[in-house]
Amino acid sequence: MSHHPESRLAVDRRSFLRLSALGAGALALGGSALALTGCAPTGSGSGGGGSATVPFTTKLGWIPDVAYAGLFIAKQDGLFTKAGLDVTIQPGGPNSPVVPLVTTGKLDVGLESIPENVASAIKNGVKLRIVGAGLRKSPECWISRADNPIKTPKDIEGKKLGTTLSGQNLMIEFMKRNGVDPSTVTLVPTQFDPAPLAVGEVDALLGFASNQPVALKNKGIDTYVMPTADFGLNRMQQVFFVTQATLDDKAKRARAKAFLLAAREGTTKMLADHKAAAELTVKLYGKEVGLKVADQTANLDALAPFVAGDDTSELFLMSDTLIEQTIESLGLIGVKADKSLFTNELLQS
Q1: CB 68 within 8 A of CB 37
Q2: Sign of CA dihedral 131, 136, 142, 145
Q3: Is 236 helix (H, G, I), strand (E, B) or coil?
Q4: N or C: which end of the chain has fewer CB within 10 A?
């Protein structure tokens, strides 16, 4: 491909996330200094448990919502404190990149919505490693109305499909690998508002399982969701990453490991009680971002299957299959990566 989609797809992914009922206040928050700090007492010392904790900073890939509730729970329930960490969670937002802050040592662990942001930095000589996947199945999907569902790729033929301009080439590749003749399909340039599907301008819309369907449901429109991951196009998302220097430093490595394990425990709690996770998220960030408990609960209901993915191993772990799928999907958008980008070493005993 002659274009350079990695930066545009980063914007697309984040714009999709904007549709998860964040409200008008979301963009106003952006990359502000708002951060989640703990309620438990902290002190000075080295990581590893006990009452003494050390400062530890991470940053979200986007504006706070229920997709990050596992981190919020780990903070609120004292899981990070138990691990010896005084964790600050910085929100992300438009024009608020994560990768540069990790590479310059201003963040201990970064969280990116999409892996290509990390992979693209590496080609410029930055030594980064992805150490865990918050989403082990891509929530990217074709969304259609329930009264006119698109259930398989073949159902796409003869239809009008709404997609962003930067997403069109990837979706054409998706069609080809599933035996769909792209010439039978009309691609309609759309943004991220699901209105074109609601009013019948398109038969399906490229979106995210936890976003547009919830927005449409709120308008009384039931939808059918066909994940691209179910038909040969999958990649991990919401990835945790660190510098190689962190892995090489005994103390920093131990703290990063403690953070990931506590975050995983918080994510397990998140999956066990969606409403409680939504209530905590709204309590912490609702006023600034305009979150609603009902919408956040519905978003997590839809997102939960993608957190675990098709893997029965512990959360965040990246299987060989998932790594291979991610490398392949990155290649389709012109981003080169290999297995050295990924390591499970911080999640294993």
Answers
A1: no
A2: negative
A3: coil
A4: C
CATH class of 5-137+235-341: alpha beta
Query: Do residues 150 and 234 lie in contact, with contact meaning Cβ atoms separated by under 8 Å?
Result: no
| 2-21 b/e (C-beta count within 10 Å ≥ 16 → b) | eeebbeebbebbbbbbbbbb
Predicted TM-score of the model (pTM): 0.86
State the amino acid at position 66 in one-letter form.
V
329 near 234, Cβ under 8 Å?
yes
pLDDT tens digit sequence for 68-126 = 999 999 999 999 999 999 999 999 987 889 999 999 999 999 999 999 999 999 877 88
Degrees to nearest 5, angle at CA 194 with 239 and 206: 50
Intrachain domains 5-137+235-341 and 140-231 with the same fold: yes
State the pLDDT confidence band at 191, using cuts at 50, 70 and 90.
Answer: confident
* Over residues 198-213, mean pLDDT: 93
Domain segments of the chain as ranges: 5-137+235-341, 140-231
Mean pLDDT computed over 269-289 = 93
Residue 193 CA to residue 56 CA, distance in Å, equals 37
Domain 140-231 has CATH 3.40.190.10: yes
Q: Which residues contact 207 (CB under 8 A, 6 or more apart)?
A: 16, 19, 140, 141, 142, 143, 192, 194, 213
Q: What integer pLDDT is reported at residue 157 of this predicted model?
A: 95
Average pLDDT over residues 131-138: 97
Cα 258 to Cα 82: distance, rounded to the nearest angstrom = 9
Nearest CA-CA partner of 93 in 134, 65, 124: 65
Cα distance between residue 300 and residue 205, in whole Å: 20
Give me 18's structure tokens. 């904007």
